[in-house]
Amino acid sequence: MSNTAQSAASTRIASLLDANSFVEIGGQITARSTDFNLSAKETPSDGVITGYGVIDGSLVYVYSQDATVLNGTVGEMHAKKIARLYDFAMKTGAPVIGLIDCAGMRLQEATDALNGFGEIYMQQTKASGVIPQITGIFGTCGGGMAMIPALTDFTLMEEKKAKLFVNSPNAIEGNEISKCDTSAAEYQAKEAGLVDFKGSEEDVLAQIRALVTMLPANNEDDMSYEECTDDLNRVCKDLANCAGDTSIALSQISDNNVFFEVKADYAKDMVCGFIKLNGSTVGAVANRTEIYDAEGNLTETMDAVLSARGARKAADFVKFCDAFNIPVLTLTNVTGFKATKCSEANMAKAVAELTYAFADATVPKVNVIVGKAYGSAYLAMNSKSIGADMVYAWPNAEIGMMDAKLAAKIMYADSDAATINEKAAEYATLQSSVESAARRGYVDTIIEAEDTRKYVIGAFEMLYTKREDRPSKKHGTV
């Protein structure tokens, strides 16, 4: 490495990559500008270490900002090093990992630094959907620098020292950092939904390693497959009890119970993450009504409804999976839409984005209805009508327009209670039962909950060679 070898920036690279695998690129580069006496200052590697190495044997490109050099600020050569790293990554088809610790734009270089930011944005945009992009934030990431994690696929953040903001908390009218630290990992993970994982520096680096092993190297070559050591026909005996907390259900059906959840603190009513099925990575999306802690205690309950935040969270995740040819599995349990004034302002657009994401995705798509599936909320959750290749349902599933008793009350508004109950039972049998949906072809197979793993594995194996043509167009507009 360069003469920044003992810095936190280089230590992070060493901790992230396989031992002794890092090869530095551009280690001798320094700042080119001489304005404002900049030439009198030492600028080793111009404040960013760039190069390549391997994670679990897979090639990755890494840049790590060095806050000991001009506070890690981005100048002309700093930006060019990152942009050049993207060139290498695009040519070889490997992920880019950015380790951020930066005070922002280098004031001494002004327009050169500003142009450098634009060059990085351009490289990120061209790489989007071609190679995975991952950001780890360990120090300051503010102003224009905040666009960099937002342009990547996954963002992980150190939970105590790291700061992520466009406007600093004290610059927001009516706010100060003591009242609401909008730059903190907690806020960015729970409220903004930009951060996928927060934890200690060691945890963040470990999670980046785990994420890389789950993802393909690029949008053409699937390097994420590994040999399955789990029983493909394994019976998941208690799976029916996990219909509420579907994060547990997903880990139950995954090979060796592997589940990498993303944005776990944001829109908790929707679970998104990666599982392994027969050694292959599968993207999973699931409605959730309960949350249990590690000791098995129920900590939170939610209605079985779609929220605007949950819909957008799932839509973004499905788009990523489709871009990188990762099959998608859904576990569906939804009765309608969240009914609050705040949600209503964003609901239609958010659900439209989710519907579009599923309908537009051409990867193999499998849906398992584990509870209720009512109305347009169900349609948005990877229903057969918007393109699910295979739809399974557990025996207790309910599929229809709405709750049977509510439907009976609407249809027989002036009737007595006995009539309402009679018609509700009739409606449940004729219109809302899983058998009724299966007879119409909206459900392919009714399966026992404990057999879910073997059925979804079989479905994805059958769909492995799926090809689907769509109308020729530049891109959609939703």
UniProtKB/TrEMBL annotation:
* Record field: transmembrane: none
- Keyword Cell division part of the UniProt annotation: no
Keywords of the record: Transferase
> Boundaries of each CoA carboxyltransferase N-terminal domain copy?
1-174
Q: Which SUPFAM superfamilies match?
A: ClpP/crotonase
Q: Which InterPro entries match?
A: AccD/PCCB, AcCoA_carboxyl_beta, ClpP/crotonase-like_dom_sf, COA_CT_C, COA_CT_N
State the Gene Ontology terms under molecular function: propionyl-CoA carboxylase activity; transferase activity
Note the PROSITE patterns from the entry.
COA_CT_CTER, COA_CT_NTER
Q: Which Pfam families match?
A: Carboxyl_trans
Q: Any keyword Transcription?
A: no
Query: Which residue range or ranges hold the CoA carboxyltransferase C-terminal domain?
Result: 231-462
Q: Which superkingdom, per the lineage?
A: Bacteria
Gene3D superfamilies, alphabetically? Answer: 2-enoyl-CoA Hydratase, Chain A, domain 1
Protein name in the entry: Carboxyl transferase
Q: What is the taxonomic lineage of the source species?
A: Bacteria, Bacillati, Bacillota, Clostridia, Lachnospirales
